[in-house]
Amino acid sequence: MRLSVLLQGLDYVGQLQDCEISGVTADSRQIEKGNLFICIKGGKFDGHDHAVEALAAGAAAVVVQRDLGLENQVIVPDSRYAYGAICGNWYGNPAQKLTLIGVTGTNGKTTVTNMLKHILESAGKKVGLIGTIQNEIADITLPAKHTTPDPLALHSMLDRMVRAGCDCVVMECSSHALDQKRLAGLHYKVAIFTNLTQDHLDYHHDMENYYHAKKKLFSLCDTAVVNLDDAYGARLFEEIGCDKISFSAGNDAADYTAKNIESFPDCSKFMLVGGEKLARVKLPIPGDFSVSNALAAGVACLPLGLSLDEVANGLCTCRGVVGRIEVLPVGLPFTIIRDYAHSPDGLEKIITTMKKFAKGRVVTLFGCAGNRDRTKRKIMADIVASLSDFVILTSDNPRDEDEMQIIGDAMPGLDAHPDTPHEIIPDRYKAIEWALDNCRPDDILILAGKGHEDYQVLHGETICFDEKKIVAEILERKRKG
């Protein structure tokens, strides 16, 4: 592709002879002859430091956001933004041939995108999905490395979706991706805001920065669908200028609400009401927060042309998401749930939901992630100890941190609730083993934090750690001897 074509739509300075470009990359280690190298300044590394090296390795030109005095440089105001736009141009801007639906928020993104995909497919659409657990091109499933991919991988995937005949794409839009402009050049038909609670402050530093990162999605969309039950959602609804629709599980001021909510161990029932229109929903996923997720997904389909009845029919046949309120089939006199809850809000929601149905104790096994926001560790432990009948504090993904340091940060939260018994078992495998040995009939054991993940990052090394398989393995070993 010609350099002039790759730079279409960008403001830039540089008088270069137009030439054929063999590929695009922002990784200096992957330079091949004829590539266009985009210099991006990150938190630890700056691609500008490798511009000369890239040209020496055969790059045809470099895109920079400051003048390096190089002969083959293209100077742009923002190289991160330019990278996204250039990747779109490289693949022929596939996003323009698709209807994009973006979902952002601290919790619920994965569930909402999966619900959206199911509702739209039930209405006859061919749908692609980009998210935390996996990426889906119609019926093809691909592993996901990041919630929102790097621009080159993202536009490559969108191109594959176009070629597979997809009509639309539902996409999780992380705060990191929005802040790092990975979505540059994309425009969403509908964007959804689920909620905002404490998470990722190791990156964003405070909640205000976190909020403004999420808010950026709503400058890229035609219609916003916003949760009024969340304080940040109510604020967002007032601040954005695009077309907007509100939803709520209890606020009649919202455009769409859930009425007559009934909760059961295996489902939720409610009336989806919008103005004078209503539809009855039996959602095969328990929990009040599942009703909120269903509202988000269902209401977002209305600006896409679906009727309220089509939305309700889709919701009634939604499947649960792997690692989200997932009941493990163990054949024991107690119930085991694995869930991805790894933030204060997520833990509160899953434990509160299980308390409604528990005939025995709610036993929560959880840990706090390493190399992440240390301030939320005490808060997480405080919430778990205040709501659970028994707590097992263990490791999550310690990464490069010492497990005992992480546990030490969480301990004040447990100590604030001396009446809640607990065990401290740093080794997560042994913690699960202990829990299986000590749960009583009718207990509910929540394995919180890992959810769909099949790995653990321990001392900088990634090891296999699939809790569904681990539980089965431990139980099989116990049966044999």
Short structural description:
The chain is α/β, with parallel strands linked by helices and 481 residues long.
Secondary-structure blueprint:
Blueprint: H1 3-6, E1 23-25, E2 35-38, H2 51-56, E3 61-64, E4 73-75, H3 79-90, E5 99-104, H4 109-122, E6 127-130, E7 134-137, E8 140-143, H5 151-163, E9 168-172, H6 175-179, E10 188-193, H7 201-204, H8 207-215, E11 221-227, H9 231-239, E12 243-248, E13 256-263, E14 268-274, E15 277-283, H10 288-301, H11 308-316, E16 326-327, E17 335-339, H12 344-357, E18 362-366, H13 375-387, E19 390-393, H14 403-415, E20 422-424, H15 428-438, E21 444-448, E22 455-458, E23 461-464, H16 467-480
Parallel strand pairs: 1-2, 2-3, 3-4, 5-9, 5-10, 6-9, 10-11, 11-12, 12-13, 17-21, 18-19, 18-21, 19-20
Antiparallel strand pairs: 6-7, 7-8, 13-14, 14-15, 16-17, 22-23
Walk me through the structure.
Helix content is 34%, strand content 23%. The protein is built from 16 helices and 23 strands. Helix 12 packs parallel to helix 13, helix 13 packs across helix 14 and helix 15 crosses helix 16. The longest helix is centred in the N-terminal third of the chain and has 14 residues. The chain is globular. The termini are far apart. The mean pLDDT is 93.
Describe this protein with a few key phrases.
481 residues; alpha/beta; 11-stranded mixed sheet; 6-stranded mixed sheet; 16 helices; 23% strand
Largest β-sheet summary:
11 strands, mixed
Instruction: State Rg.
Output: 24 Å
- Average pLDDT score: 93
Q: Strands of the biggest beta sheet: in what spatial order?
A: 8-7-6-9-5-10-11-12-13-14-15
- Helicity level: 25-40%
Class computed from helices, strands and strand pairing: alpha/beta
Q: Termini separation (Å)? A: 65 Å
Q: What is the β-strand count?
A: 23
- Rough shape? globular
Hey, roughly how much beta strand do the residues contain?
15-25%
Low-confidence stretches: none
